[in-house]
Amino acid sequence: MDSPSEKMPRALRFTQVTYFTSLSRQQEFEGNTKRVIPLFSITYFLTITFSIVSCLRLNCIRNNVWLACCGVLSAGLAVLSSFGLLLFCGVPFVVTVANAPFLILGVGVDDMFIMIASWERSSRKNNKSDVKSLLAETYSEAALSVTITTLTDVLAFFIGTWTAFPSVRSFCLYTGTAFVFCYIYTLTFFGAIIVLNHKREEGNRHWLICMPVGVDEGEAEKSCLYNACCIGNYSGQSSQPEGEHPMSIFFEKYYGPFFTNKWIKLLVVLLYGAYLGASIYGCTQIREGIDLRNLASDDSYIIPYYDDNEKYFSAYGPRVMVVIPESVDYWNETVRLVIENCTQNLEGLSYVDKNLTDSWLRVYTTLGNSGLVNISNKTLFINNLPALFRIVPSYEWDINMTQNKIETSRFFIQTVNVISAVDEKSLLNQLRETARQCSIPLMVYHPAFIYYDQYLVIVQNTIQNVVIAAGAMLIISLLLIPNPLCCLWVTFAIASVIVGVAGFMTFWNVNLDSISMINLVICIGFSVDFSAHISYAFVTSKETSANGRAIKALSQLGYPVLQGAVSTILGVVVLAAAKAYIFRTFFKIMFLVILFGALHGLVFIPVFLTFFGNVCVSPHNPKSIKIELRF
């Protein structure tokens, strides 16, 4: 007996159907958000693991595992607090906001590393157990640096809320608010955790079980693993203070002297020239627009539809709906002539094929002129519409009638040869301008127009937000960093990183659209983070030479800056595996932002500061002022 498929005609058995509906994009957006939520747990695991490894010590008393965990918890609480508050206030949650937790978690632990580094330096320097004095000194050293970076990040995001794109506004509002909570939790919750951890250390208690730990000379000579897990001694109660972290020693003894060598400085200058040249070239090649297939997941049914549409119907653009949004006297011949003239004006555009227009009024008028129906007055016009619907049933969907009155109606025109973003922008402008010139109200619409609209303002909005945010960053830097020239270097770093990210976007096949625009706004805040820490440490250093100040700044903050960069990349790296373009693009640009920001903070800025080091000193450092006067 033949199977049902064998009974089907041969043509149907080998027919492949791809489809798209008016709800497809909305469903894909919702699906993308749900698919990315499981990745957040992976990010949380990676961030905690990295924080723990960064804070490990071969001493069961000095081990900072709980500090690391609580630092990540602090960032998680900031996400919950900010999202809860804004959702309670009714702020829309859009698909782009799903990127925010990854970013906040990665960045939120940066301040933790700065706080821990400052606390440990204060403990080593003073070797005292007065908690108030230690915490006060930690805050005096770390709070300003943390405040600068938080202010710049928050301001960059809140400036981003001025954009014309609602999705960008929502993302910036959610993320900026989260950074405010990160700051609050770091200075309150995490500060309290540091104190509690210090009290545990004073009590010579194990980091895991919090039980008192003893040590004697026989046990102290056992393996490092045994010593790290089972025995220990709080250095504050010993004549031998705890040594510096190996990475701090690396930055002070090897990394700093290496990059302050005059030949290495020359190499860095050449490297920066190559970076800047490549970036500027990339900026000249940047492309606008977003491929609509990228709004769906890679395995979505929409992708084959777009592929087939491009393969077989690439000559055709969107089928545009022309709406008459108000009630007009369609039975009046003069009104019909006005509508027909407006239709012909639209058909006369270079992007429109006049042979493919589908208008219920044009067909109905033809029927009336041929004598098949009488449409000479309102009553006859309305009563004879069913005759039109019997001939073309789909026209019933093009007319909105209430109580024998046509409230609104529509017809369709077919666009052609819409290939590039320039064509899409030109098409939209021509259609709207032609519709505006019609004496009867007309509105042109296609679901893709909400994406074409961004081409009209994306460049203007991006430049506007970047310039305003960069200016705000300069003002904040001038207020908080005690040297104007070094503030200019921070601003220089902002501009340099933005140019680098925008340029290398081209090389990584990322177009300028609302999604990448979000990241360029983010770029401003993050480029400040790295350079501000190093610059502030440089100008407040008491070393007598520019090279010495650069080495001291790197020894103090090189490792925390590196930790912050790695933790942020770990926070977003899982998005590289996402099946949606929105999240992959977010990863690409954030990776470029962090890579170039860290490169400026750890390589370019320290080297460039040494060239002007004799003027980049703190006015509160008398020793530095004397040296400057001698020169």
Poorly predicted segments: 235-241, 618-631
Give me the oligomer status: single chain
Give the overall shape.
elongated
Number of domains: 2
CATH-defined architecture of the largest domain: Up-down Bundle
Mean pLDDT: 81
The fraction of residues assigned to DSSP E strands is 5-15%
* Rg, alpha carbons: 32 Å
Describe this protein's structure:
It is a single chain. The chain is elongated and about 110 Å long. Strands 1, 2, 3, 4 and 5 form a 5-stranded antiparallel beta sheet that branches. By secondary structure, it is mainly alpha-helical. 67% of the residues lie in helices and 5% in strands. It folds into 2 domains: 24-292 and 481-630, Multidrug efflux transporter AcrB transmembrane fold (Up-down Bundle), CATH 1.20.1640.10; 315-418 and 420-452, no CATH class. A hairpin with a 4-residue loop joins strand 3 (399-401) and strand 4 (406-416). It has 23 helices and 5 strands.
